[in-house]
Structure prediction request, 216 residues.
Amino acid sequence: MGCITKHFLNEYSILGVWKIEEDLKTLLESVVLDPEEKKKYRGFRSNSRKLEFLSVRALLSELLGKESRIVYNKNNKPFLKDGSHFISISHSHKLTAILLSTNEKVGIDLEYMSVNISAFAFKFMNRKEKVIKDPENRKYQLYLHWCAKEALYKICDKEGISIRNNITIEPFKLMDSGELKGKVHTDKIRESFDLFYTRYDNYAIVWTKKNYDENR
Prediction:
C-alpha cells in the first residue's frame, strides 16, 4: 500500500505513515541505499526487520526525496545526515511512522494493540496516573499512555529517564483522536508537553513536538 498519510502539522512539521504490504523485493526496488545502508540492511537476520528498515527509507523518500539519508548516534538515535530536519521514527507490526520538523524537536510512537497490556502496565504507569475501568477502552488508554511516554522519552533525548517514575501523563478524555498533556521531571529536566493521539485500525499513535532548551 505504501504511504497512507502525509500530514503537514504546520509549516515546519510533517507526519507520514506507511503501511507495509509489499514484499522485500518490491520495497528494495523502491529505495536507493548508500553503501552504509546496504551494510546495515544485510546485517538484519529477520525479514520483518528488513521490511521495517526499507519502509522507513521509502517513507522518508516520499516525504523529503530520495536524497535524504538517516544516520545514527552511539545511542542509536536517528538524525538526518544533512541536518535539515529533526526526525523521530516508530514502527509496529505493519505500520511505520516518521515525524519531521525543521525547527522543533519531535517524538512519535505507535503500537499495534495486540497484547494484554494490563498485565505489565505496572512497569510504566505510576500512582499519579489513572485509566478508566471499562476493559476495551482501558486497553486503548493504556496503550496511549505507553505511546505518549515513549514519544516523550524520544523527544527529551536524555539518558537515565525512567518511563514509569520520571514521565507522567495527566488525566484526559478518551476519544478516537485528541490531545493530552505529559510531564517529564528529573534532576536535569522539568518540562511539560502537549501531545496528540489518534487511533488507526488496531494501532495507537501519539506524537509531540516542541521548541525547548535541551540543556534544562
